[in-house]
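Table S2 (text version). Query chain:
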Amino acid sequence: MARSNIYNFSGVWDYTGFAPSRSFNYKAGSRVTFDRLTLDGNVFYNRIERSHDLSDTDRQTTVDLATRGINLSGTYQFDTAYIRATYTHTIVRSDGAPPVSTASAWQGVLLGDIITIDAGKEWHDLGLRAGMSSELALKNDDPEKYGAEPINTYFVANLYGEWTPEMLSQAVTLRVDANNIFDRAYTDRTTSGYDSIRTEPYMDPGRSFVLSAKVKF
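Corresponding structure-token output:
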């Protein structure tokens, strides 16, 4: 979303008496390892007092913004492979309610619940590596409780393969990516304006293939 969509968004801004905001950030977590299994988790809380509201021409119009949630992950490491899963749960409140429609683009993206799984495998003798990644964003009905539309779920999966031929002194890596292999029509939760009533957010690419080469020198 272009920055010109924000400047003087609702009219010519009035900066009379403009004052700074104050932020408070807290995070606590732990990581433990049991042989090949690593578990990681943390909780977080962020509060911004007097976060400026861009929907009002008076730049002294503010809201109190709060974000809290948890992040969990687990990784199992094999000899030449791994599998990892993550889960994040995020709640955003602007003056006690979810920042819906245009406001969420700069007051806090409603991530909700997101689950990811990725895995990879290497064949050292052949110089090959292959893997996958996926993301499941669960339906977020927080906005619906306050009269706005819920945010729908989506699932996207990707595959990749790499070859680093020994004959080229392992200086060249060839890679192929197959993204969004199920050709889902979706907009990523972190895309600005995904729930805006004033802008039409870009959809993420459908099924696509990327060939690339990397040379080390």
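Notes on Table S2: The mean pLDDT is 86. The first strand starts at residue 22 and ends at 34.
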